[in-house]
Amino acid sequence: MATTSDIRNGLCIRHNNDIFKVIGFLHVKPGKGPAFVRTKLKSLTSGKVLDNTFPAGRKIEDIRVETRKYQFLYPEGETFHFMNTNDYNQITLEKDTLDAPDLLKEGEIVTIIFNTEDDMPLSVDMPASVILEIKHTEPGVKGNTATNATKPATVETGATINVPLFINEGDKVKVDTVKGAYLERVKE
């Protein structure tokens, strides 16, 4: 058992008969009244995000987890196939267990979190950013660059992101996997 002082980003806890991962927290000490911890929890079974407040010092049930590196092989309908980079065992996961499945490129290395009690995969942590090639975008209009104007572009995985006007088809861009947003153009 842990207490609220042990709460940190990435901690997996059991709460309301479900397994949650802490994705944000804030320790609050008001001038009047007891301290508390405001958290943002993501359900690892349904993917829903909820806000919850714990009183300071409350016991919480933390879950022992193990992380393993897997390589993404290929999608097949609503399932995604991964291979362990150490022992080459393959597993399949449903699309809804991934945070940004439309930004996942074949061969990408991800971290999968497993519950050590039953060896069930809980969630997939993508790298902070991925490099993708632009497959389709409209050409930028010359002279339309006075502001931070953007245009939609389709990347090699099929996802659509907004990119600056100077990006053309065939360019490689770095994409933030958390926000699904353009970061920068990658020079080769």
Structural overview:
The chain is mainly beta and 188 residues long. It folds into three domains: 2-62, SH3 type barrels (Roll); 65-125, OB fold (Dihydrolipoamide Acetyltransferase, E2P), CATH 2.40.50; 129-186, OB fold (Dihydrolipoamide Acetyltransferase, E2P). The protein is built from no helices and 16 strands. The chain has strands at residues 2-3, 12-15, 18-28, 36-43, 49-55, 59-62, 65-76, 79-84, 90-94, 109-115, 120-125, 129-137, 150-155, 160-164, 172-176, 181-186. The strands form three sheets. The chain has a six-stranded antiparallel beta sheet, with no helix packed on it. A hairpin with a 4-residue loop joins strand 13 and strand 14. It is flat and about 60 Å long. The N and C termini lie far apart (50 Å). The model has no long low-confidence stretch (mean pLDDT 86).
Low-confidence stretches: none
Distance between the termini: 50 Å
Helix tally?
0
Give helix % range: under 10%
CATH fold field value of the largest domain: SH3 type barrels
Q: Overall 3D geometry?
A: flat
Known CATH architecture of the largest domain = Roll
Short description:
The protein is mainly beta and 188 residues long.
Which SSEs are present, and which pair or pack?
Elements: E1 2-3, E2 12-15, E3 18-28, E4 36-43, E5 49-55, E6 59-62, E7 65-76, E8 79-84, E9 90-94, E10 109-115, E11 120-125, E12 129-137, E13 150-155, E14 160-164, E15 172-176, E16 181-186
Descriptive key words:
188 residues; mainly beta; SH3 type barrels; OB fold (Dihydrolipoamide Acetyltransferase, E2P); 3 domains; six-stranded antiparallel beta sheet; five-stranded antiparallel beta sheet; flat
